[in-house]
Amino acid sequence: MTTETSSIIYRREVKEKDLKDFKEVLETSGFFYDFEVETAEDFLKMRFDDGEEESGVRYIMAEDTSVENGKLVGFICFGFDTCTLSSHLLYWMAVHNDYRGKHIGGKLIEKFEEFVISKGGKKIVLETAGRDLYKPTRDFYEKHGYREEGIVPDYYSVGDARVTYVKDVG
Prior knowledge:
alpha+beta; Aminopeptidase; 8 strands; globular
């Protein structure tokens, strides 16, 4: 399924050309360590190689169609929590720095939530970092109705807590 907003389309398909643009999206965001970029790339490769059903990894991609051959400019990566009856996990989300402020992140969250609801999902859980760098990220989730449910101090590293957010959607 593909939906349009100006020159940005949102699609569930993962294309081979996404593998090239994906790293750039993560790196330009300025939020991820190199090892996190590698892990996120592994998720995408697993999804591309094994398919959505086998891998359990799902994406919604934001593509700028005004760029020749299209350009991946953002994504949200998620999956069903197989240890639950109706909860989903948001694994990764990023928007290319050149495309910030264009409501792409908000549209990705909206489409993700619509997908979860369409599958009978009731709850979304995500985690993010507690570093100051991530304050805008935490504000973003709160703006979209996610509530902070827990903090694990020094989780990612000393001084960098894991902050868990939850949203009831069904």
